[in-house]
Task: inverse folding
């Protein structure tokens, strides 16, 4: 099994961008989703099938970060559906991503070349729709940090985090402010050092275990 890359692009979790293409009255509806496992990819495909039960075909392809690739033509001539959709995912550099292209048959045969263009074109259009909507995320090894600071230090803490390449994930306002942050692995060290100086050595931050995260 292949190792996970240092960073890669994926469909943002919770996003499901769509695009539609028409060819000789056949409708090709492409929907993208995030899938970190084969089980998640197949579950996503089943959701799409359930939403379009009356469609003729549901072509599916997924690409996982561990290197696994899979596609199905779902009754279309071999190589005319799944491969073009998978090519669209790989061409965009997407991993942990699944695409389902649903076809409503329009009554006219498209031929092998027409099917390849239609399925691949619909998948590429969905990728472009995801880019335009800001639904393509970068995944890389990151480190979570929680900073518990007085209200007076909130803005300074956020600026320091951003200057060090970090991003704010959440905030909890109580007696102090608990700021949940994430940093690309290694970038948290400069932030922790700056926070130590800001707090005169007082421990204000809790550091979590490295994990793959969206940025």
Result:
């Amino acid at each position: 099994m292949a190792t996970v890359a240092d960073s890669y692009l994926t469909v943002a979790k919770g996003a499901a961008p769509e695009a539609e293409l028409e060819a000789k009255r056949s409708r090709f509806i492409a929907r993208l989703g995030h899938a970190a496992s084969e089980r998640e990819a197949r579950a996503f495909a089943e959701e799409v099938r359930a939403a379009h039960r009356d469609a003729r075909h549901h072509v599916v392809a997924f690409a996982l970060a561990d290197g696994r690739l899979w596609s199905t033509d779902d009754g279309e001539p071999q190589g005319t559906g799944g491969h073009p959709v998978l090519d669209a995912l790989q061409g965009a550099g997407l991993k942990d991503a699944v695409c389902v292209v649903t076809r409503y048959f329009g009554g006219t045969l498209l031929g092998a070349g027409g099917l390849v263009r239609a399925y691949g074109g619909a998948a590429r259009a969905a990728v472009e729709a995801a880019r335009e909507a800001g639904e393509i995320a970068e995944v890389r090894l990151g480190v979570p940090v929680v900073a518990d600071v007085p209200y007076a230090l909130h803005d300074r803490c956020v600026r320091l985090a951003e200057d060090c390449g970090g991003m704010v994930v959440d905030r909890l306002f109580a007696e102090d402010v608990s700021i949940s942050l994430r940093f690309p692995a290694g970038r948290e060290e400069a932030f922790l050092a700056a926070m130590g100086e800001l707090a005169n050595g007082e421990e204000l931050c809790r550091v979590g275990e490295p994990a793959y995260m969206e940025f």
